[in-house]
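Next up, a specimen:

>
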Amino acid sequence: MILLDSVVEAAKRLPPDQGGALLLGVIDYSERCVAAEATAGVAEPFEGDAVLGAVFGGMKFAIDRALSKQINGARGGEERARRAKAERERTESEPKANGKRTPSEPEAKSKPSPSELQPKDKDKDKDTASGEASSPKPPYAAIVGYLNERCGTRYRHRAEKTRRLIDARFREGFGEEDFRAVIDGRAAAWLGDEDMEQYLRPETLFGTKFEGYLNAKCPKRGGAADVDLGKWSKPDGSVF
C-alpha cells in the first residue's frame, strides 16, 4: 500500500469528507496495482468526482513511481530467495568424501614460482627489443619538412593523421625517397594550378593513391622555365 506524505497533506487541506475519501481512494488504487503487479491498465479512482479526480491526477505520477518500486522490489526479493534456495540445494547434494576433491571440483592449479616465470619474461623482453630495433619509426620530420619546403606549405610532422598516413605507406614497403618522388612529381604537376594546388597536402599525397602518384609521369609544359629544378638546386637557390 502506498500512502505518500504528499497524499496525507493534500487530504488535510480538503474538507473532512473529501479528505477521507481521497485517502481511501488512494489506498484502494494502491492495493489494486499491487495485486495486478503493474500500474498500467489499473482504473483510476474518483472518475465521477471532478475535484478529487484533479487532486489525484496531480499526484498520480509520484504514486505510480512509488508503487513500481514496491512491485519490482518484491519481485527481486522473490527471485533472490529462489536462487539462494537452489544454490543451497545444489551444494548439499554434491558428494563430499572426507575433504577429497569430487569430480565436480576442478583441481587447483599451483601458481608458478618466480624462477619459472623468469626465463619467459626474458624471452619476451628480448623479442620486444628485437621488434623495436627491426622496425624503426619513419622520418616524419624529414618527409613533412620536404613537403613544406617544396610546396611552400606549413604542415606539422607531429600531426597524428599525417603520421598514420606515413606509417601506412611504410608498412606497404615504401621509403623516404618514394615520398620525395611523389612530392616532386605532384609539385611539378600542380604548382601554379589554382584548382590543384590545394591538394598538395599529406592526406592527398600520402593516401591510398600514393603508388599511382609515384608512377605517374609529370606533364611536359614545353619550356625551360617549367622544368622542375627543385631537387637539383643549391640551398641558396642557384642551380648545380
User: Anything to note?
Assistant: Residues 5-89 form one domain.
